[in-house]
Amino acid sequence: MTNPKEMIVAGIMSGTSADGVDVALCRIRLSNSDTPHIKLIGAREFRYPKAVRSAVLAAMDAKSISVAEMSRLHWRLGEIYAEAVEVTAQEHGLKLDLIGSHGQTIYHQGVASKYLGRPTRCTWQIGEASVIAEKLRTPVVSDFRPADLAAQGQGAPLVPMLDYVLFRSEKVSRILQNLGGIANMTAMPAGASFEDVLAFDSGPSNIVIDGCMRRLFQKSFDRNGAVARRGRILRSVIEQLLRDPYYAAPPPKSCGREQFGEAFLNRLLDLCHRSKARKEDVIATTTALTAESILNAYRKFVWPHLGQKAPMAKSIEYVVAGGGARNSTLMQMLREGLEPMGVRVRSTDDLGVPTQAKEAVAFALLAWLTWNNLPGNVPTATGAARPVILGKVTRA
Question: What pLDDT does residue 312 have?
Answer without folding.
Answer: 64
